[in-house]
Design goal:
Elements lengths: L2 H5 L2 E7 L4 H11 L2 E3 L2 E7 L4 E7 L4 E6 L4 H5 L4 E4 L1 E2 L2 E2 L1 E2 L1 H12 L16 E4 L8 E8 L3 E8 L2 E8 L3 E3 L9
Antiparallel strand pairs: 1-5, 1-6, 1-9, 2-5, 3-4, 7-8, 10-11, 10-14, 11-12, 12-13
Amino acid sequence: MNQAENITANWYAIYTRSKAEKKVLAEFVHSGIEAYLPLVLRLRQWSDRKKLVEEPLFRSYIFVHITEKEYFKVLNTQGVLKFISFGRVAVKIPPQQIEAIRYYVSDKESEEDNQDELSEGQLVRVKHGPMEGLIGRLIRMKGKFRLIVQIEAIGKSLTLNIPRTRVEPVSSGKEKLN
């Protein structure tokens, strides 16, 4: 590895203890490590009430933007279990994927009906927005306007809630999941 690669910061995904994402994020902020925890509002119901709760988009995952020198500092943070890796090497996350997640979390696009016929199990392609071109498998339709689409990333399947207006059916069977 050359000197330039040593200094360049890259995005990585880390796996945390269950329900420790916000605590780990606070530890990173305190120690000066750039981190991103995508949060979404979800309606939770208890026996006596309903409440909007801010929860991680991906449970037990946080993204960190670090240099190679900070690797062990991240790994030794309380609540961190491991880096997401392939063949014992931490997987670098392309910055455009982080930006796509940021955009997805902040997107409040109006949800108009889409005329494409979609069925569960088929491959769909994101046709516009920052995730344009990604291909995933339609897991289920959630309400009238949103889809649950499974996309392969970093060797793991991530399930994303995507507006129906953003996807189209994949016509041929030659494409594979991104």
